């Protein structure tokens, strides 16, 4: 009986210490929440930026709501938000110390019966930051590529 109580105490202590030991800042446990993206070209010029809300859904899907271009760039500046749509996907992994990692993909596409403008983002999730590369294709004037960073918006204070 004493052995069994001792083993239970040891197991409980082990579970308690699993949550300890990380002195770094923890990232989000998932991708759900508000995000702000900055897309730059090879010269460091911001070509696109947007704010949005991501919610993870089944099968690594991403529900994208509250999407607003701050800088719509050449591919989307002539169009209203009802003339394009957003889709995305992600995978997340991590450990008990709050280290979140994974992959991220997103497309913003105009909704036309013919050729569409498409902005494609592919990257990786690390903690509370998503980074990667983007490319734009479509009608005349809609082209380009570069890198992006997506992070939670700055908090006041």
The CATH topology label is Lipocalin
Q: Tally the helices.
A: 2
Q: What's the gyration radius in Å?
A: 21 Å
Q: What is the chain-wise order of helices and strands? A: HEEEHEEEEE
In whole angstroms, the N-to-C terminal distance is: 55 Å
Whole-number mean pLDDT: 79
Give a topology summary:
Layout: H1 2-18, E1 33-40, E2 46-57, E3 61-71, H2 73-76, E4 84-94, E5 100-110, E6 118-126, E7 129-137, E8 144-151
Antiparallel strand pairs: 1-2, 1-8, 2-3, 3-4, 4-5, 5-6, 6-7, 7-8
Write up this protein:
The chain has 157 residues and is mostly beta strands. The chain has one domain: Lipocalin (Beta Barrel), CATH 2.40.128. It is 13% helix and 50% strand. It has helices at residues 2-18, 73-76, and strands at 33-40, 46-57, 61-71, 84-94, 100-110, 118-126, 129-137, 144-151. It has an eight-stranded antiparallel β-barrel with strand order 1-2-3-4-5-6-7-8. The longest helix has 17 residues, at 2-18. The chain starts with a helix and ends in a 6-residue tail after the last strand. The model is unreliable at 2-29 (pLDDT under 50).
């Amino acid at each position: 009986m004493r052995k069994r109580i001792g083993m239970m105490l040891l197991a409980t202590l082990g579970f308690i210490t699993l949550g300890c030991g990380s002195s770094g800042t923890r990232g989000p446990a998932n991708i759900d929440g508000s995000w702000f993206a900055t897309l730059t070209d090879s010269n460091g010029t911001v070509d696109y930026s947007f704010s949005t809300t991501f919610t993870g859904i089944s099968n690594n899907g991403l529900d994208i709501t509250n999407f607003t271009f701050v800088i719509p760039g050449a591919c989307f500046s002539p169009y209203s938000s009802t003339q394009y749509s957003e889709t995305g996907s992600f995978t997340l992994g991590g450990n008990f110390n709050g280290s979140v990692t994974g992959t991220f993909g997103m497309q913003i596409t105009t909704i036309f019966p013919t050729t569409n403008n498409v902005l494609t983002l592919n990257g990786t999730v690390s903690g509370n930051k998503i980074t990667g590369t983007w490319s734009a294709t479509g009608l005349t004037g809609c082209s380009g590529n570069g890198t992006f960073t997506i992070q939670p918006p700055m908090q006041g204070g």
